[in-house]
Fold:
Amino acid sequence: MSIATAASLRALREQKPLVHQITNYVVMNETANVTLAIGALPVMAHARREVEEMASAAGALVLNIGTLSDDWIEAMVLAGKAANAAGVPVVLDPVGAGATRYRTETARRLLAEVDVAIVRGNAAEIATLAGRKAEIRGVESLGAGDGGAELAALAASALGVVAAVTGPVDHVSSGGEVISVANGHELLGTVTGTGCMATAMTGCFVAVQPDRPLQAAAEALVAFGIAGEDAARSAKGPGTFHAGLYDALYNLDPDALDERARVRER
Amino acid sequence: MSIATAASLRALREQKPLVHQITNYVVMNETANVTLAIGALPVMAHARREVEEMASAAGALVLNIGTLSDDWIEAMVLAGKAANAAGVPVVLDPVGAGATRYRTETARRLLAEVDVAIVRGNAAEIATLAGRKAEIRGVESLGAGDGGAELAALAASALGVVAAVTGPVDHVSSGGEVISVANGHELLGTVTGTGCMATAMTGCFVAVQPDRPLQAAAEALVAFGIAGEDAARSAKGPGTFHAGLYDALYNLDPDALDERARVRER
Amino acid sequence: MSIATAASLRALREQKPLVHQITNYVVMNETANVTLAIGALPVMAHARREVEEMASAAGALVLNIGTLSDDWIEAMVLAGKAANAAGVPVVLDPVGAGATRYRTETARRLLAEVDVAIVRGNAAEIATLAGRKAEIRGVESLGAGDGGAELAALAASALGVVAAVTGPVDHVSSGGEVISVANGHELLGTVTGTGCMATAMTGCFVAVQPDRPLQAAAEALVAFGIAGEDAARSAKGPGTFHAGLYDALYNLDPDALDERARVRER
Structure:
């Protein structure tokens, strides 16, 4: 099951897959730019009249519930089903699940009606979906620093997905196996939407290996975390870090990735 | 009534209040990043099915009418009433009031149906709401450089709020008293949404002192203005200024704030 | 017909025209900042209840179909007709025409119901509207590097507009004449929304010379391309390039523009 971030990044840059994203208003520009910087092609489309056509033509579909409304939920379900029918992998970011009933119910509905390959969230969001108690303030997870590996495995089994629980250390699991990724930098927590960016990266990586969602999810977090480390080097705060993050993704050197990956598989 | 920006900033960073923002599409990412950079937690949610739950759980609610539509207005009213019921202070940014009838009427409706603690706008927007004639082009105030102090006092009395009129010099009033803030930098006028950012900052500061809206509004403008001064130092134009603004907010040194504040209270 | 970018930029900075933009969620902040950086005033408004009033008061109206939904299309039609009635030039960006039927049909409907002065798009989008076969992935044009001049002339004649086809070299035509612009930098392709920014720039330039849409479209691309060249000089990747682009637009020196323009008119 071992991961191969360098090889996947090379494939991604070669194939430039289209990643269809139905995501929130706050981060649309940012996740599109992450997608471009890593080497894929983003497209944002949310109208019910076009999402099926767009999702079917994509390499991956990313659903993100960060700023919900009823019309968008219907579009997500339609797009998800079309992606399923076309064999296009679906990644879900359950932003704020646990913070309001509406978000929790929507995330559950998407998981019930769409065959989701990967769920990427923080500990509180994933715990909520796995039926555990979680402490959340708005869309931020509080406290849940430990137990991420167990949580990822539990959620993966309970939901029948690959679960990626991100935090100071990220944990990705398909149920039995767990891959832990310790790359990253604390400045990632000072910019809004870095979780959503990690989800977009996951869409990019799974688009070039739809049959390996576990590896794709872990590789995306390795690449994103290393880019965060690179961006932090010359950052003077969240603003220059944010700009530097796109530079770092664009300049990621595949040759150095596998050595720099701080990964534990078990 | 004297303001204490340093103490409030320390409280804000300690308490990390949740600031629920129903704001416009143009600035969502930016006001979320300002909120994070200063030390609070942003959450954007606009669905009628969740705004009451979210607003009730927040430390402050920010309503911003920059890109309106009917659904969003209904959500703002619902959120505002829920915030009122929960004792959560409400901050209103009447973007473009005076530019179209729709915006003017919406700002007036929100003021009528919701107990608003603070209104933050430019001179033309505040003058429109106070029943004065104003010159506005799109969402920019033209001309009204002088008379801000009187306008703030007039609007505060007429509307029963704390009024914050921002411009080259900002004026904040609860009716009788006026606090003037001369911090800031002209580059703030070259980046879209810096007014909306000032409003988000106001939400952050009032969240930790809901009973002192006058001081909170002035302190937010002091802190934001000083960050603007810091960001201008190494900026080469609006782009690097914009990135530097988040760095500056994040790196604001409370120990220096009260000395650097260019405030006149009367 | 010769273009005069320097003179137009000076007029733009002097007049600060209001540019009303009904555009997509991904780039709203970015096109607003481009508009401000070059010296005009942006306003975003999409509600049916206010677009006619806003468009009538503007110097130009920009319609961009990057993230469509039915309500927004109706608003675009209303705004376009109001702009027509008021003599306000309309610029259309048919983002993703050819990628889904919904986008193609919407672009065609806008061209049928609104008197559009300038259409700015990539080769695939313009080819789709001109009735040619095009290869598009999401909203990116593939392959169509050559033949831009002929395509621009063909589309201009077929659609009765000024057509601006952007790519490594841009081609602008009113049917007979073609102006080619070779300014720009490949980093423009690494940031999302640079096409939309070029369209916003077009709106700014036509606002100060509504009777010269051909020249305005070419001048906008000259100015934007030169800013891209300037921004690339100190960029380390897409993030610093993006920030630098606003700096470069803001700092554009009119005295150097006409000499730096890489333009061929025929």
In short: DSSP finds eleven helices and eleven strands in chain B. The domain at 5-255 of chain B is CATH 3.40.1190.20 (UDP-N-acetylmuramoyl-L-alanine:D-glutamate ligase). Chain B touches chain C through 33 residues (CB under 8 Å).
